């Protein structure tokens, strides 16, 4: 960790970003009214115009160096492949087959429990909570309509299951960002994370079982093809086996493409188009990642991160305090930005400095970043996840919060893990 207190004024570009993004959300009652990319662009311009001690050309070069860091470029490659795999698998019917298979085998009294499991599996495979919720929200509403189960319960269940996968999936942008910013590997982070959130998932399933009322109707499921689920299963097995994420995703694209061609869902040209569309769908996230990398580097060069590090660690006297600092930092950033990926990308470099200084294992700091950002994201009523789910059911976002068990429980499990882990390593 660097000596000195750093510079408070160096954080001004970040303040500009928060004012633009959060301020516009409060004024318009829509936190996606101003595109986050626009807010980051303005903040980046402000950062480049600050600190006249250095020539503008030098600051641009420093910005480019930050955007072009090895970890960020690798992250970009992974985002590209993740987008291609998600689109290819969905285009050949993998999502529909997965949902319909689960609905066809679930008894009525386990519908909501099964809905959580389906959402968890699909988000694990797709790597996106938003995509999972958009896919399953109509099904959740349909189950509610056919059975009389509260739509707030079914939709909040989908959100919870989606956040489970978002937190663990090897192709989730939050997981990728956490792993890359903390310079650890996917397998170690997955294992560390899994054993922290598993109790939360089990407790959620128990709660859902007892909260699901008896129903007299049967939910009809459409046909499914078990072969179309194989790419998802293959990706999960390969990831757990420890295969490099780029190899896993490339293999998943190939596997899903071959099945799509064999089943007649694709021609060579339509497959190529789907892959291209999947890659294009990640363009905003990639640009955001590059710009945030450059912005953070300018703020770091001007002493902003050093100042934050001083403020957040000056009263830390233990690893528990350092872990709390990482958890609090990413949680507050997530509350401000309403996006867990942005929160991790923004807080990640500072969390890495804290972890290094207090000898916190990188896999643990990555786990803390991902757990607490996902917990916050699953609870904020102005986040994309709850907004999409509430809109599908014509409910207010706040209506879902009373059933948002999983995000609360993973935050609780994260807190317990901080204390238990430190107690275990003490002499």
Automatic annotation (TrEMBL):
Signal peptide start and end residues: none
Compartment(s) of residence: Cell membrane
Family that this chain belongs to: Belongs to the NhaC Na(+)/H(+) (TC 2.A.35) antiporter family.
Key words of the record: Antiport, Cell membrane, Membrane, Transmembrane, Transmembrane helix, Transport
Major localisation: membrane
Domain spans labelled Na+/H+ antiporter NhaC-like C-terminal: 55-210, 219-419
Membrane topology: Multi-pass membrane protein
Organism: Polycladospora coralii
One Gene Ontology CC term in the entry: plasma membrane
Record lineage: Bacteria, Bacillati, Bacillota, Bacilli, Bacillales
Pfam families: Na_H_antiporter
MF-aspect GO terms: antiporter activity
Transmembrane segments: 7-26, 32-50, 71-89, 109-137, 194-212, 232-262, 283-302, 322-347, 368-388, 400-420
Keyword Ligase in record: no
InterPro entries in the cross-refs: Na/H_Antiport_NhaC-like_C, NhaC_Na-H+_Antiporter
Name of the featured protein: Na+/H+ antiporter NhaC family protein
């Amino acid at each position: 960790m660097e000596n000195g207190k750093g510079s408070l004024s160096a954080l001004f570009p970040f303040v500009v970003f928060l004012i633009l993004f959060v301020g516009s959300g409060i004024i318009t009652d829509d936190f996606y009214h101003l595109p986050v990319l626009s807010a980051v662009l303005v903040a980046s311009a402000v950062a480049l115009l600050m600190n006249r001690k250095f020539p503008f050309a030098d600051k641009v070069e420093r910005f480019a160096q930050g955007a072009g860091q090895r970890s960020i470029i690798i992250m970009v490659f992974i985002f590209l492949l993740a987008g291609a795999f998600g689109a290819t698998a969905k285009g050949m019917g993998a999502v529909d087959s997965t949902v319909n298979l689960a609905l066809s085998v679930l008894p009525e009294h386990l519908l909501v429990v099964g809905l959580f499991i389906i959402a968890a599996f699909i988000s694990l495979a797709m790597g996106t909570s938003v995509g999972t919720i958009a896919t399953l929200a109509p099904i959740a509403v349909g189950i509610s309509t056919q059975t009389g189960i509260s739509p707030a319960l079914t939709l909040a269940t989908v959100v919870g299951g989606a956040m489970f996968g978002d937190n663990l999936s090897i192709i989730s942008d939050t997981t990728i960002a956490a792993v890359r910013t903390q310079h650890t590997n996917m397998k170690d982070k997955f294992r560390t994370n899994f054993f922290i959130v598993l109790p939360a998932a089990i407790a959620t399933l128990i709660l859902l079982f007892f909260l699901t009322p008896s129903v007299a109707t049967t939910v009809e499921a459409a046909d499914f093809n078990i072969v179309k689920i194989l790419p998802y299963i293959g990706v999960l097995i390969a990831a757990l086996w420890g295969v490099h994420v780029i190899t896993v995703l490339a293999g998943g694209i190939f596997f899903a493409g071959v099945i799509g061609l064999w089943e007649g869902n694709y021609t060579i040209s339509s497959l190529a188009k789907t892959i291209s569309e999947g890659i294009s769908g990640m363009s905003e996230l990639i640009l955001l990642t590059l710009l945030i990398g450059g912005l953070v580097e300018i703020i770091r060069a001007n002493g902003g991160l050093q100042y934050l590090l001083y403020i957040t660690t000056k009263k830390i006297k233990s690893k528990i305090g350092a872990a709390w600092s990482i958890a609090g930092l990413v949680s507050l950033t997530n509350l401000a930005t309403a996006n867990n990926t942005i929160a991790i990308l923004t807080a990640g470099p500072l969390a890495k400095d804290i972890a290094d200084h207090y000898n916190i294992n990188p896999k643990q700091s990555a786990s803390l970043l991902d757990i607490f950002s996902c917990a916050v994201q699953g609870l904020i009523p102005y986040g994309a996840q709850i907004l999409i789910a509430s809109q599908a059911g014509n409910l207010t976002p706040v209506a879902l919060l009373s059933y948002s068990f999983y995000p609360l429980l993973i935050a609780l499990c994260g807190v317990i893990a901080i204390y238990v882990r430190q107690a275990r390593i003490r002499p």
